[in-house]
Design brief:
two-stranded antiparallel sheet, P-like
Length: 211
Amino acid sequence: MHDLEARARNAVKRVFATLKTSYPAWYERHYGDVRAESLAKRIWMTGIKSLTDVQVDRGLQRMVLDADFPPSLKEFVKLCLRIDGLPDASTAWYQALRKRYSHEAVRVAAKLTGTYDLQRSGYGDVVLRAEFERNYAIVVRRLENGEPLDSAILKGICHDSQKSAIELADEHAERQLQERLERQGIPQAGQAARLALLAKMRIRRGGQLHG
């Protein structure tokens, strides 16, 4: 907790130093008074303490390069979290099937899902698509947090306070996948899920008709 607060204080210090340098007249008008500046810093610390250093750096860069006016706290957080050029999950799935990636995150998600399976799949493969979208959501969160994109998907059981941001993201995406499979009545075991899907689609494999 102490490290988190120290990092948040340092982040706020960098934000306000950048605001003061980039918008000197505005800064003097709003935060020229020491008490006003101190109060504003406390408010901003609460708002950005969950951001990583990479995210804050991203927000500062965009503020300097893109913002015509000083951003509010809410606007600054959006600048920190925004990732440009990312396709939505549906477009990413389409690209993964065709091995044509518009963003590195799509390529990594395809690799984690299995490019061999993707090349032999189709747009309507519900099970594989759910697996890909889970991996894509995890990779996007890694990108937002400035973490390595292509490390293995982490699994395991431990207390939430001991888990990294990516582990929590893994579990969130896993829950979404499980809920989606349950809603569609598809067994959650991999092989059973594929057999159930084949049965629904009445696809002949290996000379046998499923369903």
